[in-house]
Design brief:
With 177 residues, this protein is α+β, with helices and mostly antiparallel strands. It has 7 helices and 7 strands, in the order H-E-H-E-H-E-H-E-E-E-H-E-H-H. A hairpin with a 4-residue loop joins strand 5 and strand 6. The two termini are 30 Å apart. Helices cover 36% and strands 15% of the residues. Mean pLDDT is 84; it is low at 110-128. The strands form 3 sheets. The protein has a 3-stranded antiparallel β-sheet with strand order 3-7-4. Strands 1-2 form a two-stranded parallel ribbon. It has a two-stranded antiparallel sheet with strand order 5-6.
């Protein structure tokens, strides 16, 4: 519920929060339903059987109607100004992708996962940067690029499906930071 609360409390309120219940049996659906009753920005999509992260993300993409998409896993949470600041930055720079810094936190440690660059680069130049974050979370992606190029997560991969998605996206993106 920390994840959902961090989304619902964003200072940028014009959000569409798409949740995909991937056949969970742990009470997640009931929690989602409780939140959805309180906030109509939450859309719940339920899959009867667990089909994996790639299918769940593709399902969310099919239902997304916003100009930009961000992927947030259930064990993530966002700073309350995250989306507002990202939207301002992507609009100011007319960006196709903005990757934002993230911090990994566990019971015993904490580390920054992205050494954030402020330069705006093309897709090819960005791939050559050492600061490339190939995880799909921690970014704001222009949905038109995803749709126009039919970019989806590879459902045959058990691991690193997000890396392939990011590389496909970068192939078509022009302005990235």
């Amino acid at each position: 519920s920390c994840c959902l609360k961090s989304l619902l409390l964003q200072t940028y309120e014009n959000l569409e929060i798409i949740t995909v219940n991937d056949g969970s049996t742990d009470g997640s659906l009931e929690i989602l339903q409780e939140f959805a009753v309180q906030d109509n920005r939450i859309k719940i999509i339920t899959q009867a059987h667990n089909k994996g992260q790639a299918v769940a993300r593709n399902t969310g993409l099919m239902h997304a109607t916003g100009e930009y998409v961000s992927f947030v896993d259930s064990d993530d949470w966002l700073d309350l100004q995250c989306i507002e600041l990202c939207i301002k930055e992507v609009e100011y720079g007319d960006l196709d992708l903005l990757q934002f810094a993230s911090v990994y936190v566990s019971e015993t440690s904490q580390w920054n996962s992205v050494n954030k660059s402020t330069s705006i680069l093309s897709g090819d130049a960005y791939v050559n940067q050492q600061s490339l974050n190939v995880t799909v979370w921690g970014g704001l992606y222009k949905k038109a690029i995803i749709d126009m190029n039919s970019i989806r997560f590879n459902t045959q991969l058990v691991m690193a499906e997000d890396q392939l998605f990011v590389y496909k996206f970068l192939k078509f993106a022009n302005r990235i930071t």
